[in-house]
Write a structure and sequence with these properties.
The chain is an alpha+beta fold. The protein has helices spanning 63-73, 81-97, 105-119, 121-131, 137-147; strands spanning 11-19, 24-31, 37-43, 50-52, 58-59, 102-104. The chain has a three-stranded antiparallel sheet, with no helix packed on it. The longest helix has 17 residues, at 81-97. The radius of gyration is 22 Å and the shape is elongated.
């Protein structure tokens, strides 16, 4: 591992610890030349399936794009970033466990909608309105009705 400060090729591992339930190894390192210390993270890299967009164009999976679209829907909503990261993790886990080399972007859109519905109903409606390209108010009202809890009867 090259030192990020002086670019010397030799570094020494001082400490290693498993984190994220053993999915990531955190290593503290020391450069043997400049004596500076830094941290590296080691994780398994699995190949995510390629995306097939609506027009048939293929694209690479992009975690940052997924996070950005979810954060846009969650803008000004009281949802912690950790919850968003966990939701993204569940989406990626489903994609990986499908063992498919390619997946339609609609599948990812549906997975995002499912996660947003769990996180925040307003964000779910925001995302659905763009994702499903609502043409009129009735389509919007159907989604609102879907997430609205049933009203209690007064008796």
């Amino acid at each position: 591992m090259k030192c990020p400060f002086c670019h010397h090729a030799d570094t020494q591992v001082i400490d290693s610890r498993a984190s994220d339930e053993g999915a990531v190894i955190r290593r503290r390192r020391r450069c043997l030349q400049c004596d500076k210390r830094f941290t590296t993270y080691e994780r398994v890299e699995l190949a995510m399936p390629a995306l097939i967009k609506r027009g048939g164009i293929r694209a690479e999976y992009d975690r940052d794009k997924l996070r950005a679209s979810m954060l846009l829907a969650l803008r000004k909503r009281p949802v912690p970033r950790e919850a968003v990261d966990e939701a993204i993790g569940r989406i990626e886990e489903k994609l990986l466990s499908s063992a498919q080399r390619e997946v339609k972007s609609e599948k990812i859109g549906e997975l995002v909608m499912r996660e947003l519905k769990r996180l925040d109903k307003v964000a779910y409606i925001r995302f659905a309105s763009v994702y499903r390209s609502f043409e009129d108010v009735d389509e919007f009202a159907e989604v609102v009705k879907e997430v609205r809890p049933p009203r209690r009867r007064r008796g």
